[in-house]
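Deliverable D4.2, example record:
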Amino acid sequence: AIKQMDMALEREVARSQRFVEEVRYEQERRGIMLDDLRDQVLGLMLRPLDSVFSTFPRAVRDIAVRSGKQVRLLIGGESVEMDQAVAESLVEPLVHLINNAVAHGIEMPDQRSAAGKPAEGQVTILARQSGSEIRLEVIDDGVGISVDNVRRKAIERGVTTQFEADAMSPSEILELIFRPGFSTREKVDDISGRGIGMNIVQDAIRKLTGSIRIHTEEGKGTRFIISLPVSIAVQHALMFRIGSQRLGMLSHMIEQVVPFKEQLIEKGEGDKTFIRYGNRLVPLVDLRLMLDDTRYKLASYGMPYVVVAEHIEGYVGIVVSELYEETEIIIRDIDPYLKRYQSQGLMGNTIIGDGSVILLIEPYGIKEMGRTAPDMRLQQEGGETAAMQPFSGQRLMLVDDSIIARQVEKALLESLGFDVDTAIDGLDALEKLKMHSYDIIVTDLEMPRLDGFGLVRQLRNVPQYEDMPILIISTRESAEDRMRALESGADAYLVKQQLEPAGLQATMQSLVGALTPAP
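Output generated by the structure prediction step:
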């Protein structure tokens, strides 16, 4: 009987093993079928680039005639296939790059002849595919870009500081042309840029989850290199936690993940922190306190990591509390409410296996949040310097699109006694002004939808706000920006990199004096 039971048990075990193998085979077969079906669906979204490139010959011809230059356009790679939505979104940035190549890059015929070049300039557009990535190049054989000229103009216009410029490599200096407010032209024209600047190219490429690089040689020409995924619908992302929030970043944006070690940290101007990565000093952004809540404490974070991410100007190091897995995701557009406010550093969201919605961040916006933020130590120093809270009861509106800047400045202003409300840009501030009264407005300059200049001008055109004290606190430190802000109607101007509690308190004293608190 025992032998019969053993044989029956062996038969059941064998039957169970066959069943497991059949289930595993069926799962693998269905997985292969689903992958094949997905590839077919994604293939239906792809279109050759010739439909996009066909519009460029006329554009080059028109801009050449208007600028009095002789230019020939060469195109290669029209048969390369790309996501149709991506290809259509590339038209505007590519036209802008072509316009700049003709207007800024190609010299006048007599100048080219004097330099030993053919009188006819050449602009080339090339496309090629490498794996799941498309590489687009816009090349001209013109005068090239002067690194020294870009550095000088960027400092003059307050786009960067002398310290930042001195720490940058030549390639990083060239990337400054993508920052808002930068232009090498003294006068705006309707041929190239139209006063908008190359940041519209940057914004378009960032929305498509791509990157752009510049290679130039003075006297020989310039090459803009754009790298984009073939399809932006399905991509790989690294998941991590910052503070109490789970977030993600597309894998192709990440250069490396390294352990957070104090010996790798270096201090810069305004006590900004950098991490040594190879031969580079990479700015470090720590959002853990900004994204913290009562469930998490810094002491319980364990071993943090630094995600070294590549962006349009180089690299940025983002401190994360915990690393999760890399996974394949479908990128979804952000909620219309968040999209309305053009949240800095946020590019979209995805839904992971457990049903959670994960926000996806992008490195350039995070780097800008860190760059434009005042010194984090001001939160502690402000409380010590202004322990008496001389402005207790005064109501203040703080307008800034950077979460870090708002956090630091709000804490500093509250330490002076102000009751602080915040707004993320000029339009948000105008909406809140309809509901509440304030004694003073403190605003940044560079913001989405309505910037600081526009906010000040609109306020001064309303009788109710004609005499309201307005303070500008901005990263832009050029005399031109300071004068423009004061001419718009601001009463005072402070630079974030030079912000300190005693100076802020003195400025506030001169602006609000002994005003009675708002009702």
